[in-house]
Amino acid sequence: MARPKSEDKRNAILAAAIKVMAELGPGAPTSKIAREAGIAEGTLFTYFATKDELLNQLYLEVKGTLHEKMMDGFPHGAPLRERVHHAWHAYVHWGALDPARRKVMQQLTVSEAILPATRIKGAEAFCGISEMIAESVSVGMLRDQSPDFAGAIMSSLADMTIDFMLRSPDRKENYCEAGFVAFWNAIGGK
Amino acid sequence: MARPKSEDKRNAILAAAIKVMAELGPGAPTSKIAREAGIAEGTLFTYFATKDELLNQLYLEVKGTLHEKMMDGFPHGAPLRERVHHAWHAYVHWGALDPARRKVMQQLTVSEAILPATRIKGAEAFCGISEMIAESVSVGMLRDQSPDFAGAIMSSLADMTIDFMLRSPDRKENYCEAGFVAFWNAIGGK
Amino acid sequence: MARPKSEDKRNAILAAAIKVMAELGPGAPTSKIAREAGIAEGTLFTYFATKDELLNQLYLEVKGTLHEKMMDGFPHGAPLRERVHHAWHAYVHWGALDPARRKVMQQLTVSEAILPATRIKGAEAFCGISEMIAESVSVGMLRDQSPDFAGAIMSSLADMTIDFMLRSPDRKENYCEAGFVAFWNAIGGK
Amino acid sequence: MARPKSEDKRNAILAAAIKVMAELGPGAPTSKIAREAGIAEGTLFTYFATKDELLNQLYLEVKGTLHEKMMDGFPHGAPLRERVHHAWHAYVHWGALDPARRKVMQQLTVSEAILPATRIKGAEAFCGISEMIAESVSVGMLRDQSPDFAGAIMSSLADMTIDFMLRSPDRKENYCEAGFVAFWNAIGGK
DNA sequence: TATGAATGAGTATTCATTCAT
DNA sequence: GATGAATGAATACTCATTCAT
Fold first, then answer.
1. How many CB pairs under 8 A join C and D?
2. Tell me, what CATH number does D15's domain have?
3. Residues B130, B78: one domain?
4. I need a surface site. Which of B36, B51, B172, C138 has the fewest CB within 10 A?
């Protein structure tokens, strides 16, 4: 049983898990996820040995999607501020346009089921972005911190911004930019 | 009245819930909470009719503790920056010194069990603080937002800062101040 | 603790039990009964040592009420048919006017909680009536049975008749008399 | 399909429910029923979604068995009295030979758990029998009632008769016939 | 490989009864 | 005697996981 047959089915399960868990939280029953995915209860376990494994894979999948969005159309040659703005814009719109995925990410982030190893793996993809942000930092005190700190500033402010965007959809773009201003100031962006 | 309902017991249950849920999440069994509180399984339900009610009360209790800490020794007459710094310092040290309470707050914040009404009630106490922060805002774009936005900037950055303080206890104070700098810059504090 | 103080309270409990059990069946919680009776949960147990005792007393009370109604205004000197008709009329109207009490009697009659001794005691009061009915029996085969058999014919037909009276309140009296005719024929009443 | 849901198992559960509930009433725990049926506690709920559904299905099963017995060997061409006697005989012997089933029917009949829809469905099968009995009715007043009334006279008297048959097994047949005489007279059978 | 019935430990909640006040 | 908080065994139902088909 090297790799299970259908990549499609694996994706269907992950998609179903996002849908169901956005509503029911990480306590959502695997049976409901299976039904939503259009497969039998038992089949889920040929793709994910345990529910915890599903949760961990899901965490990675969700973080992966976010990363993908942030790199999609990334203006590699552009000035720093523009590049960072691209990342910011992609982040908050990812969350505002796909609230289920984002809800699941929030829940899994604070869940005991996600292993430290998974968290590390999930963070790895964002190294580059963190470093880019760190480059923008002009505030002395913040320059002394690891790039992670700058990256974390972005995540936390972006996440907060998404909340406001979801609460007031008509002022979405306003919040997106207000959030960016706060973020850019926070790191003393040049 | 026979035996009056004991405030002590109520508090013991809430304390036990914090301890147990910090480890097991909101899915923690009420039986474990009762045992930890030193009471019978059934007794828990004379104080909280359902587990959901316990969760909602707990949310309020935890937010309340945080608010209390932030107002404890508050330098009412001091300059704005000092007052905001007091609030920040109290917030992040509350989280760093009582990680269980803080973990529970994080988990409940994203839990479906917390009713909107509870969230509103929990936020009310922080109005004053949000307004104080909003006063500090000098960035034009951010001035146009509600005080909530400023308050949310603080919460999200403080929360992120706590993570770093917990991960590197020896650099706790360093992170506390670095976080404050980022926050103060974010809102363009004067 | 010879006899508990208040006979009123005892009656309140029995009345409450009837009301609550008519809705919830014999599984009705004693706490609900106590609340309905306007007393504390624990007080119920100074009047009835256990729930089963309450149930048994209730059975007797309900049967007693029925018997009382049947003897109320009983035309002692009247011809047999008239006397039997009085009993019948009282029975079915008791059930039709107090459906809660009657529902409880039905439920307790088939409940495992009612002790044989209680059933016997409850039946004793009806000996006289059974004997009166037995006197009316003119059918040879039925004359050979114990008076109980004649009494049981009456109870079962009366109970059935009550069902119809409750289902069609506007035809109540019609059913009362139709039932009596069936009953009188059944025993070959002279 | 994997393992198909086994009709045998469903029947085993119903049989177990009859046995256990005859002793413990409708309050009998599902766990005891499952054990008696030789299955796991949880398995019961793959066959009956809730205990109430089990109760309702059981009601139908029990009524169905009774109806089956009444129609078994039914002398379709025979004179009316003989046909009615067949039904009566089958009814009371069903109850006398399978007291557990009959006890359960009594209990469920007065239970709040049985839905009106279930009662209607359970009664449908007996329409034909009620009509046959109604045909036998020669008493003017009873002729004006719906066939249900005649059917109800039979049920109530048969049920009473079963009680006597069970209490005095050696006089079983005597009571069967005495009961029939009463019944036949009640409806003024021709 | 896919299926879904079977499992049984686990969970929130109820409730008769006790007993401190 | 009256109260109602405390108790903990009992109960319906759930759910991750297994495994026969």
1. 87
2. 1.10.10.60
3. yes
4. C138
Residue C140 clears pLDDT 90, i.e. is over it: no
All residues at 6 or more sequence positions from B95 whose CB lies less than 8 Å from its CB, including other chains: B101, B102, B158, B159, B162, B165, B166
Question: Are there at least 3 beta-carbon pairs closer than 8 Å between A and B?
Answer: yes
Mean pLDDT for all residues in chain A = 94
User: Whose CA is closest to C16, among C46, C38, C43?
Assistant: C38
State the pLDDT at residue C1. 44
- Quick one: D182 and D133 in the same domain? yes
Contact C164 D152 (CB under 8 A): yes
- B45 and B120 part of one domain: no
Closest CA to D131 of D178, D187, D92: D187
Same domain, B95 and B182: yes
The pLDDT value given to residue A190: 78
pLDDT digits (tens, 9 = 90+) for D55-87: 999 999 999 999 999 999 999 999 999 999 999
What local confidence, expressed as pLDDT, does residue A4 receive? 56
Structural domain that includes position B40: 1-49
One domain, residues D97 and D137: yes
Nearest Cα to D175, choosing from A160, B123, C89, C153? C153
Please indicate whether, in this complex, the C-beta atoms of A178 and B103 are within 8 angstroms of each other. Answer: no
- Residue A2 reports pLDDT greater than 50: no
Does at least one atom of strand E sit less than 7 Å from the CB of D141?
Answer: no
Look at chain B and report how many structural domains it folds into: 2
Do D13 and D31 fall into the same domain?
yes
Residue A138 has pLDDT above 50, yes or no: yes
| C neighbour chains, 3+ CB pairs within 8 Å | D
